[in-house]
């Protein structure tokens, strides 16, 4: 109604676009997150412990909030800008004149601020990169999910090798791939959608050539490795039984030693491929060997397998087909109890202690607390007046915590170990005498117990003084047995 124009409208300064609640909130968030970033950075640098949560806060949460704050501030400015245009017409064009002291000051301020921001961003993203690769992030941040893998890893010969060395390896390509699947994994963890147990084998694990072979030399000639296995029987007196053998590991490259033995499979001159009929790669009906120089191909099949072979589902054998538990080994109750008894942590003088320890470790429990309690009460009831049971209980509980993870349904039962043949098919997936060439004349070596290892001595007491360099026939404790070892031995026996 008042047509008279306002005297001179107060000049609209550009900076006023940030004078609104949204932008101010955004700026408060920016300042807050910058402050926490520096504070946490200091904490992370000064602390003598590695805490995955500090890492998450510093390198993921704080920069995240910084970004959110900046976006909110800009959004507020944008809305305010539109509002100003609507009410007071277009803003005066931006003019920077460095001859004006005010502009010079502002320009200097922006330059310094920009450089500082870039520095913080660079430091932040470098640290974020390292942090998401760290053992802490992989093993501990997700808490329950990776606990089984993390705990078994800490007890493995690779406890000092970062997870990423085996699971990601070198190169940007695999880094991006792993971050893509990792992002899904973080989502799955937060949304509680992850499988229990985590399935094995890992489908997209990087080929061994690019991970294990960064540190291990497959061409190296190993020769024979001596191994002693110390067992106790489940009888009244826990009779000891020992097997000492030479593992004929050998080598795969003629320039480093004779080609042969167990590492023959890694022979640089051959390629061994196989077909597995199950997801876990425990059933192998078809194996093919290609001698690369001559191009000779030899196929081995089990009698039942008459299908044609789908080339796409063949897998080339590598380290992981035998060493599939180099970092996450879930000991079977039998192996773990034998070891604890051999080390004296479980007193061998307690009658039937092997049998009782196996009994409590092979029951199913819903969680750690229930398991540890039941172990303690059951064992103390069985040996009511014997003080030696106290340390035995501690040892059995320790076995439980290091190898059983009921929340993730992870234990030796879910994760087969392919290195031997006692508790899982392992080598006998192929070396079972059933895999033959079409004419039936040649089969993959099987029944010769001294083909892969030489039994030097076995038994107990004075029997162990008899060494036979040529190898002895295996004397199974108790009766002669027939059949594959893992038909009877499943970890609890
Ligand atoms: C020495 C190499 C190595 C290191 C170090 C390593 N892993 Fe593994 N990991 C493996 C192999 C080999 C497998 C089994 C692959 C297969 O059978 O396909 C595996 C399997 C897994 C699996 C699948 C479940 C299973 O047990 O098969 C998870 C999850 C896993 N690792 C997490 C981790 C985490 C977390 C770390 C670090 C705390 C780690 N790994 C360190 C080699 C390694
Ligand atoms: C970053 C280096 C590194 C990588 C990668 C690595 N290892 Fe190892 N590995 C080691 C070290 C170090 C040892 C311990 C050597 C020792 O103390 O004798 C070891 C030991 C071993 C042993 C002997 C264990 C024992 O019980 O005596 C085997 C088998 C093995 N590694 C297999 C593998 C396999 C399979 C992979 C790939 C999945 C792999 N390693 C990846 C460094 C590595
Ligand atoms: C056919 C199965 C098989 C394959 C394939 C295989 N290994 Fe082995 N390896 C063995 C066995 C069996 C031993 C003996 C040790 C044992 O019994 O634990 C062994 C021993 C070793 C050792 C210990 C040697 C030492 O001096 O202590 C290392 C390291 C090793 N292997 C690395 C590798 C690497 C790396 C690859 C892949 C290039 C590989 N192996 C492929 C079966 C295999
Ligand atoms: C995927 C199938 C497969 C698996 C699993 C496998 N092998 Fe073999 N292995 C073969 C084939 C095929 C040959 C060659 C047979 C031939 O040429 O007559 C062979 C040959 C051998 C040889 C004789 C090498 C030489 O000197 O000529 C030894 C020793 C051996 N394997 C040990 C093992 C051990 C130990 C394991 C388990 C840790 C194992 N193998 C697991 C397929 C397999
Ligand atoms: C294809 C190769 C191969 C053949 C054939 C073979 N073994 Fe083994 N055996 C192995 C390997 C590899 C291991 C080592 C497992 C480990 O590292 O713990 C092993 C381990 C053993 C052990 C110690 C087992 C344990 O895990 O406590 C005994 C006992 C044994 N073998 C007996 C036999 C007997 C008996 C035969 C004949 C029926 C036989 N082996 C044939 C490869 C073979
Ligand atoms: C018919 C079932 C059966 C078969 C097959 C069998 N075993 Fe056994 N094994 C037993 C029984 C039962 C015991 C006694 C367990 C005890 O007293 O603790 C035993 C004990 C053992 C022991 C000592 C105890 C221990 O802690 O492990 C070893 C080692 C062993 N067997 C190795 C083998 C090997 C290697 C094979 C394959 C060549 C094999 N067994 C095949 C039933 C079997």
Task: Describe the overall structure.
There is one protein chain. With 493 residues, the chain is α+β, with helices and mostly antiparallel strands. It folds into four domains: 14-133; 136-205, no CATH class; 224-326 and 418-488, no CATH class; 333-408, no CATH class. The chain has twelve helices and seven strands. The chain has helices at residues 21-46, 52-88, 101-133, 135-141, 147-154, 163-167, 172-190, 333-342, 353-361, 368-382, 389-403, 485-488, and strands spanning 224-232, 240-248, 270-275, 286-291, 296-301, 315-316, 453-459. The strands form two sheets. A four-stranded antiparallel beta sheet has the order 5-4-3-6, with no helix packed on it. The chain has a three-stranded antiparallel beta sheet with strand order 1-2-7. Strand 1 (224-232) and strand 2 (240-248) form a beta hairpin. Helix 2 (52-88) packs antiparallel against helix 3 and helix 9 packs antiparallel against helix 10 (368-382). The termini are far apart. The relative contact order is 0.08. The model is unreliable at 1-7 (pLDDT under 50). The structure holds heme C (6 copies). One heme C is lined by residues 231, 233-235, 241, 334, 338, 422, 476-478, 481, 483, 485, 487-489, 493.
Q: How many helix segments?
A: 12
Low-confidence stretches: 1-7
Termini Cα gap: 98 Å
The class by helix and strand makeup works out as alpha+beta
Total domain units:
4
Hetero groups? heme C
Most strands sheet:
4 strands, antiparallel
